[in-house]
């Protein structure tokens, strides 16, 4: 999808040319609290003056002093080209999201192989499952082809094995996905199972399922 560079009061952003092509994980820029409505820092209550200047957090739009809004952190959910100023609370959230963008989303876009069962069928099909480059679709390729829009997914249940009553490690071995077909209220279900009898990377499949679990959150 084509993108364009735009400038806002918060900084430079690389956004899709068409709003309909934007990532489902994206966030809109918040409106800034007007200067006249924030005579004091909204975190430490320090009064603004000629020396103590006010700064707006690019994520929440609230007004802070430099001490409370000094961190510049990447904000990929708003498509900023460079790290932007954020308050301490928002910076922590954005740092966690950056790890999600740098790791989990890349795992999902690289894809993994599963046996996929549609609905109540007793037959499964070996398919490569991946997140599309624009992050809007879950793409499944085998003898059949499916494209599931992320925003239409209603339920993601990760299937695990290895748990014992006394504790112990579990590993992700599959997933049950429920989604709505566009233009219909009908809910469709798919079951994904990491195969035991073909040469796929089990660690890759488990990592893909773990990343999908984070996406659902």
3D structure, described in words:
This is ZFY21 protein. InterPro entries: FYVE-type_Zinc_Finger, ZFYVE21_C, ZFYVE21_C_sf, Znf_FYVE, Znf_FYVE-rel, Znf_FYVE_PHD, Znf_RING/FYVE/PHD. The chain is of the alpha+beta class and 217 residues long. The chain has two helices and 13 strands; from the N terminus they run E-E-E-E-E-E-H-E-E-E-E-E-E-E-H. It has helices spanning 88-110, 202-216; strands spanning 3-8, 11-16, 55-56, 63-64, 71-73, 84-86, 112-118, 124-131, 137-141, 145-149, 153-161, 171-180, 187-193. A seven-stranded antiparallel beta sheet has the order 10-9-8-7-13-12-11. A two-stranded antiparallel ribbon has the order 1-2. Strands 3-4 form a two-stranded antiparallel ribbon. A hairpin with a 5-residue loop joins strand 7 and strand 8 (124-131). The longest helix is centred in the middle third of the chain and has 23 residues, at 88-110. The two termini are 25 Å apart.
